[in-house]
Amino acid sequence: GFKNNKVLQIIYGDKTVLECAVAPFLRCEHIDEIIITSSKTDYKNINNLFANCEKPIKTVIGGETRADSGK
C-alpha cells in the first residue's frame, strides 16, 4: 500500500496520477473549468499541484462517502 493518497503518487516522469488524469481535460477546448473532489487531508496538496494551470481548477472537499461527495 501507499503511505499517501495513490492519486498523488508520481507515475510518469515528474507527474502524479492525478495530473495525468486531468491533462486531457486541460487540453480540451470545450472544457472551461475543472472541479476536483478531495479529502480534507489532500486538499492543500491538490490545490498546490494545480496552482499555475491555464484553466481554472477548483478543489472541493468531498463528503464522508463517494455518494455524499456527489450531492
Structure described in brief:
With 71 residues, this protein is of the alpha+beta class.
Report what the structure shows.
There is one protein chain. The chain is of the alpha+beta class. Helices cover 31% and strands 21% of the residues. It has 3 helices and 4 strands. The strands form 2 sheets. Strands 1-2 form a two-stranded antiparallel sheet. Strands 3-4 form a two-stranded parallel sheet. Strand 3, helix 2 and strand 4 (57-61) form a beta-alpha-beta unit. It is globular, with a radius of gyration of 13 Å. The chain starts with 9 loop residues before the first strand and ends with a helix. The relative contact order is 0.17. The model has no long low-confidence stretch (mean pLDDT 88).
